[in-house]
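REQUEST FORM: STRUCTURE PREDICTION
Request ID: SP-0412
Submitted by: Lab K.M.
Chain count: 1
Length (residues): 191
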Amino acid sequence: MARLLIGIDEAGRGPLAGPVAVGAVAVPRHFDFALLAGVRDSKQMSELGREIWFEKLRILEQEEGLRYAVVFSSAHYIDAKGIVPAVQVALARALRSLEASAETSRILLDGSLKAPARFIFQQTIIRGDETEPLISLASIAAKVRRDRLMRRLAMRYPEYGFETHKGYGTKAHYGALKKHGPSAIHRRSFL
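STATUS: Completed
RESULT:
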C-alpha cells in the first residue's frame, strides 16, 4: 500500500525565456482531501488566487504533513537537451527532494508526464490538473515559483518585460526581442 501520494505538474513549457518548472506535492496516506476543496488548475486561476493557494499549501506543509518541491531546468539546459529531457530531469530531482520511495509512493502525473520507470505505481492523467487536487496544487506551486522567479529576473533584464508576460511570446516580448536581441535566459531553440 502506498505511504505517499504525489501529484506532479509542470509550468513554463512554452515560453521563449526562463526555465521550465516542475512541481511535486506529496501527502501521507491519511491526508484529509477535504482541506483541498476548491483547488483548481493554475491556468484557471488568477495570479492572486494562485498566491492564496500557495500560502495554503505552505500552511498544510506545517500542519498536515504535506510536502512539496519545485525544481527548475534552465533555458540553457532546454536549448542543449530539449524541453522533454529538461522536464524529465526536473521531475526526477523533485521526487528525490521529496525522498519519494519507488516502492511505497503512488504518483499522479498531468498530461504526458512520466516519472522514472522505477516508480511502478504511477498514473499519467490527461487534464489531471483539472481533476486531481494534488496535481492542481503541483501546478500552482510550479506556476507561482516560476512567476516569482521571472519577476526577479525582470530586474536583471528590465528591457524585456518579464514581470508582465513571464517569458511567454507576447507581442511586447517579440518587440523587445527585435529591439534588444535575446538575453542570457532566452531559449534560443524556441526563437
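NOTES: DSSP finds seven helices and five strands in the chain.
Reviewed by: T.R.
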